[in-house]
Amino acid sequence: MSPHPGRYNSTKEKTMRDLESAEFVSLMADMSSSINMDGCLGVTRHYITPEAKMATVVLGVRKFYPNPHRPTFHEAKTLLMSEWGITSKVQCMVTDSAPKIILKCPTTQPSPYPMFCT
């Protein structure tokens, strides 16, 4: 939980209002490990403002569990997109080609937008 929930909530509300004007959004995903070796999925969104400026916002970081009863990569990113109201605006997702990402991106689950591994 944020040590400043009021600031977090007001910043998130302002960011969501700003994002409403964005017609298209691209996402960047990265998986990493904490010092305790807990897996984490971070998702960042990029969009162009009405003033033609690039905007970048971290959507969130979610713990990633190897347990099959916990959210998958697809479920975690879908939940973040839904939470921010951008599901229909996403045009692509870019991620590194780390083995963790490749293993967590099931090829049997079609994506409604292109996913690029760099």
Write a structural description.
It is a single chain. The chain has 118 residues and is of the alpha/beta class. It has one domain: Nucleotidyltransferase, domain 5 (2-Layer Sandwich), CATH 3.30.420. 29% of the residues lie in helices and 33% in strands. The protein has three helices and five strands, in the order αβββαβαβ. It has a five-stranded mixed sheet. The protein is globular. The model has no long low-confidence stretch (mean pLDDT 75). It comes from Cirrhinus molitorella (mud carp). This is RNase H type-1 domain-containing protein.
SSE blueprint:
Elements: H1 5-20, E1 25-33, E2 39-48, E3 54-64, H2 73-84, E4 90-95, H3 99-104, E5 115-117
Parallel strand pairs: 1-4, 4-5
Antiparallel strand pairs: 1-2, 2-3
Task: Describe the main β-sheet briefly.
Answer: 5 strands, mixed
Task: State Rg.
Answer: 15 Å
Mean pLDDT level: 75
Shape: globular
Estimate percent helicity.
25-40%
- Oligomer description: single chain
Helix vs. strand class:
alpha/beta
Please list the strands of the largest sheet in the order they lie side by side. Answer: 3-2-1-4-5
CATH fold name, please? Nucleotidyltransferase, domain 5
CATH class: Alpha Beta
Sheet-strand content, in percent, reads 25-35%
How many helices does DSSP assign? 3
Distance between the termini: 32 Å
User: How many domains, in number, for the residues?
Assistant: 1
Give the tally of β-strands: 5
CATH architecture: 2-Layer Sandwich
Low-confidence stretches: none
Short summary of the structure?
Helices cover 29% and strands 33% of the residues. With 118 residues, the protein is of the alpha/beta class.
